[in-house]
Amino acid sequence: MKYWLTAFICLFAAAATSAAEPTVLTPADTKALIAPPGRGVRIVALWSLDCAYCEENLTALLAFQRSHADVELVFVATDPIGEKEALEARLKAAKLDAVPSRAYADATPERLNFLIDPTWGGETPRTLAIKADGTREAVSGALDAGRIATLVD
Fold it and tell me: What's the CATH number where 20 sits?
């Protein structure tokens, strides 16, 4: 019995760890990323390694999601996928590694910025809420629970 419990814990840990590993985000991937979800709200949290408020925002978004089952959360690093190890380490250190994560994989990051949100100037943090009815709202800057609730509602 101990063997199976240990095996289960190891598998669970491996699955949680793999969620932290950012996958590539190319221009072709953006259409699915910003498509309306089947239900609820998808929050796309754009961040970067050199952003002062990003980690706080990601933490606030994860806390919000934990109490709102209809919220799907995706972290998107605007850093290149070549920085994958640094991105992984940052998310893991902040205990944010259970959230699906993407990283830019295009020679022109401005192109990805535009495809994700044509009104966005590239500043981070940037948070995009995409609702099942197709409506979208985006904000830049620091978030707290109240601002997230307003964004999602």
Answer: 3.40.30.10
**CB count in 10 Å sphere of residue 146:** 8
Its pTM stands at 0.86
Eight-state DSSP code of residue 22: P
- Please give the tally of structural domains in the chain: 1
Residue 62: other Cβ atoms inside 10 A: 18
Of 44, 20, 37, 40, the C-alpha closest to 115 is 44
Q: Between 150 and 7, whose confidence is greater?
A: 150
Alpha-helical (H) ranges within 21-53 are 27-33
Q: How many residues are given for the chain? A: 153
Q: Is the preceding peptide bond at 125 cis, omega within 30 degrees of 0?
A: yes
**Domain region containing 136:** 2-152
